[in-house]
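User: Show me an example of a complex going from sequences to structure tokens.

Assistant: Sure. Here are the input components:
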Amino acid sequence: MANQRPIGVFDSGVGGLTVVRALGERLPGEELIYLGDTARVPYGSKSAETVARYSRMSTRFLLERDVKMIVIACNTASAYALEELKAAVAVPVLGAVEPGARAAVAATRSGKIGVIGTLGTVRSGAYPRAIAEAAKAAGRAPVQVTAHPCPLLVPLAEEGWTDGAVAEAVARRYLDELAAAAPELDVLLLGCTHYPLLRGVLERVARERFGHEVKLVDSAEAMAHATFALLALHDLARMSEPVRCALRCYVTDDARIEEVGARFFGRPLGPVERVDL
Amino acid sequence: MANQRPIGVFDSGVGGLTVVRALGERLPGEELIYLGDTARVPYGSKSAETVARYSRMSTRFLLERDVKMIVIACNTASAYALEELKAAVAVPVLGAVEPGARAAVAATRSGKIGVIGTLGTVRSGAYPRAIAEAAKAAGRAPVQVTAHPCPLLVPLAEEGWTDGAVAEAVARRYLDELAAAAPELDVLLLGCTHYPLLRGVLERVARERFGHEVKLVDSAEAMAHATFALLALHDLARMSEPVRCALRCYVTDDARIEEVGARFFGRPLGPVERVDL
């Protein structure tokens, strides 16, 4: 039956495991296939063309495993490849940008939203577009969006330096730049799956640099909610008992996958298979 | 004539341009072809198998362009793939590890050398092996080598944050760890082509944390010298006037190549062609 098929999730590396974790909590009955393109990570500093090409390869890999839906857990891949993939494949495709945009619009009072992400995500302009659409759909006045690239946050999260002097210094530098550009924002959207690991230091430094409460919105949560809604819409939710082996995990390079994967997944990953795309 | 053929240089990304710069100064009469695998950078956090596979692809690309010699500008690729490539191709192949190892042995007085590099380079054990061999060849007593991985230095150099609070905090954290392990070292070998951009802050923080002068050895210089020697040995040095177009530059992804490339090359790069491997 179509509903018994797995949900396919792909990401540039391990960051998308924060999305898998949220999906597992929200949809415990579903089987998940995760593909992390760890051999070619990161996508955030690469061109639209390269990211779109790699995204097509990951999508093909998942479709060959008969998934009923594709979740693009990587913000950069969503920003550059979502529309193309939506048009090309027969199953529903969910990106990382829209769900986060809607959650940010729902959370802001001042109507001023900050977005942090990779260079690619910021350059694509995907978040300002999606936030404008979400505000319109919600019948709200136009929202002011300030997007700021933070390339060092990904290696920082992967290194596991999520607190301490270095994390503080990096967060200060980026958030000072953002505060200079948009001092009145009250929502900071974490537009990259790696950033939830730095939530603590970002929250603390944001309060200090902006001088008022800044609400952090994490797209992983929002994506799990949107996946649930999309499955319901297409009548694809699994109806049976929870599956035994809920997650099958594939990577294109397996260096440090156990250690770093567990950091993002929140617990040990289980068996991981290395594949070539 | 064989001698008129170009020298091929490959790297995981733009870091190897520090080697190209040194080669250009040392061998102004030679034509250079540079290939940066910027679509799949970085190599430093990836497995031996993946790095060796990518290195074979880059080598093939250069051989198709009829190079007379191959220089592996990437330390991680040298650590994982040099022996295999040397055995497989007909032209001389030079890696990044041996030249730096010899220069470090020549520079140490205490006989205690520190090496910093990527995770891959440190894991491979290539530097301790090469330094032991270089010490033996120089008729010196065995040298004590402490290698320490510094994954954040690459993104830091690429971001251009080569000085200031973040660079200081990162250098302090890594060099504190190194100083705890080997307080008496007097030479610090920069075992990654990105690190010369951070030379200033590393030198300053090393003096402060070790409490004595620490000599920094940069393998780019040593590689240019070794290239000169290897060309002479094989009677391959170019005999004519300096060429007009001394550098042809290829990359697998061209995002930010002008800006970041110039930072490593020390001046604008000129035309860069994007290729698929």
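The lines above are the inputs; the final block is the predicted structure for all two components together. Chain B has two domains: 2-95+221-274, 98-219.
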